[in-house]
Amino acid sequence: MSTPTENTTTSIQPSAVSNDNDLPPLVTDRPPRVLIAGAGLGGLFLGILLDKAGIPYEIFERSAELRHLGSVMCLSPNILPAVEQVGLYEELMTVAKPVLRNTFYTGELGVVAKLETLTTDTALLLKKIPPKNLRMSKKVLSFEQDQDGVTVTFDDNSTARGDILVGADGAHSAVRQHLYKSLGKQHIIAKVDNKPLSKGYISLVGTTGALDPVKYPCVLKEESEVHYVIGDNDTPYSWFIFSVPGNKICWTVIVQLGVAELADENFSCSDWVPQKNNKMMDSIRHLKIPFGTMGDLFDATPDEAVSKVLFEDQLFDTWNHGRTVLIGDAAHQLLPASGSGAINAMQDAVILANHIYDIKPTSYKNIKAALSDYKDERFGLVEEQYGHSRISAKLLFGHTFWERIFRYVIFNWLPASVQKKQLIRDSAYRPQAVFLPPAPKRGTMDVTPQRPSKRVQQEVEEQESKKRAAAAAAL
């Protein structure tokens, strides 16, 4: 396997769009220049990977500051090998806590089930992005693509020019919206892509300040345990907590839309309004946790550390067209019950980086083929995870009559062997960057084989050919 040459990332400067379609398409030996819209998990991880591959890129974030990067995410074994490849594993282990157990309770804290994951702060990724590669307050308004490149226009009237545009800008992606609008005018958009996002749940999410370890002994443990509490018939909420570094606890309260009037009222308020959140929090302060009540955690959480999150889901059919491609929530928004949303965004980044690396020489034809191959490799896997996330949401957050029946059957009658078999299957897919040395295997379970790199295969064949030619010449 080859190792990329020294990083040659350069700033991507705006330039005019060529309107001369009579000229032959540009073909060059330089790597493609990549414009990434969105500094979320997928966008940041893609930037880190491209940096390792020596591929020039810039990330454009619509926000003026990255407050969302202070949030906590969970990482599964499915992405840890790639994290290790880019040199983040050791640092990750200094700021993260392994989650060794998930315990499920009734509203009165009766244990329902225990299942035998890793929590960390997403700001870890941001530190690996050179400041010159990250542009803030850059909201995408539109873009134009042709055989020679793609030009993005931002809301401050500035532009950027590159070879590939990656929409990593979330569920309400401006890149996706502009792309679909353009495809709609050409009548080449799938019907499913015009469907509105499915809205099923709303949640409040927060992270406390440093807590007293006497009252909350869990914060001193090296491992973290996720405590899921699922309300009964009179409490249509689900809530869970887990400890994170810094003697803090991350908490989430979820309610199904249509079953609680207060939640529907909060949902109708489109903006983040602390007063609305506080009203909802006051109504659920009594909810029990193993260390007291949710109200205790609310009191230890600053207002600015509380966010309202709408759980939406949609699996779009069109992920790429021309020089434009979508990753993460821009291409597929999964319900967070299974914890797969963040992981799939980062896996998208790994596979897309692999296919961008395979582009040689850089041409419009090769770019389109690479982006199509990325979608072809990822879509079926994401489609399966999409179905799992909907089932998991019903299991953990659903409070209709039939969802309660479903939960009772799964928790009480599903054999442990079946659960273990599914867990092993879900954990087997662990894609890695083809242009970096593979991470050492950790654990004993088998891993799903990965598609080989076309470029690496070609380089190996060329090396073998040279060896045979040299051997023949020596005779």
From TrEMBL:
Gene3D superfamilies: FAD/NAD(P)-binding domain (3.50.50.60). The keyword Transferase does not apply. GO terms for molecular function: FAD binding; monooxygenase activity. Pfam families: FAD_binding_3. Residues 1-21 have a biased composition (Polar residues). Keywords: FAD, Flavoprotein, Monooxygenase, Oxidoreductase. The keyword Aminoacyl-tRNA synthetase does not apply. Residues 34-180, 306-356 form the FAD-binding domain. Residues 1-25, 435-475 are annotated as: Disordered. Belongs to the paxM FAD-dependent monooxygenase family. This is FAD-binding domain-containing protein.
